[in-house]
């Protein structure tokens, strides 16, 4: 079975005649017949019946038709993606992003727009449930989220996994510690997301397993405000590596390890409808994946430096 045979099968079906398909493809009719025969031989079933007026599909042909169309459709999308890259991609890219991850988008967007300056971009920032609803309503086909659901219409592609860390001000008493225990963390004022968020629920469940209580001193859905409170040494914050990456790099915050870290890994997913991505979505997906990898490499090197110091 090959693409020529599949393409010929679709042409014969669409025009309803071996003769017309031969004219359309500028091929001898025996070549058309041979390709169909070889395809049917490979599949072990007859696909077409020659009628008096028009070629018809067998039951097996009807079953095979959508798959043949899908194969050639995917090939065409691949060609379009290559052409876009070669000619300079254009169009409008629409994506969704989980509120808690929006802080990490600027750097990735900067590099994406530098590489593809002719693409216009729309970004929708909402909680995960709203993102999924909007995606199903065709507002966009792809979104970035920290959480996955059991939804048969959605495909979740994991692109990054990271551990929860403790972040404090350089003036905090923990700042010169290599590791901090859960018990010590629970005794500090905590700067955290509000109680209805998924990440806050993970914190609550994890600490309750150790019979630990804590004081949620400042609660907010605004990440910049959380960072402000931590920088002012008004409490400590539990978060993923990428959340505070720039502040740690600029030495505005200190990242610390948690002793016997019990928190489950924080996942980052690209979620999309269960269908082929269009060429612009695919370009962004690959760029995002590479960008996250680069960020992660920075964090690994930072961890190595920290371990050397402590």
Automatic annotation (TrEMBL):
<protein>
    <submittedName>
        <fullName>LysR family transcriptional regulator</fullName>
    </submittedName>
</protein>
<dbReference type="InterPro" id="IPR005119">
    <property type="entry name" value="LysR_subst-bd"/>
</dbReference>
<dbReference type="InterPro" id="IPR000847">
    <property type="entry name" value="LysR_HTH_N"/>
</dbReference>
<keyword id="KW-0805">Transcription regulation</keyword>
<feature type="domain" description="HTH lysR-type">
    <location>
        <begin position="1"/>
        <end position="58"/>
    </location>
</feature>
<dbReference type="InterPro" id="IPR050950">
    <property type="entry name" value="HTH-type_LysR_regulators"/>
</dbReference>
<dbReference type="Pfam" id="PF03466">
    <property type="entry name" value="LysR_substrate"/>
</dbReference>
<dbReference type="Pfam" id="PF00126">
    <property type="entry name" value="HTH_1"/>
</dbReference>
<dbReference type="InterPro" id="IPR036388">
    <property type="entry name" value="WH-like_DNA-bd_sf"/>
</dbReference>
<dbReference type="InterPro" id="IPR036390">
    <property type="entry name" value="WH_DNA-bd_sf"/>
</dbReference>
<comment type="similarity">
    <text>Belongs to the LysR transcriptional regulatory family.</text>
</comment>
<keyword id="KW-0804">Transcription</keyword>
<keyword id="KW-0238">DNA-binding</keyword>
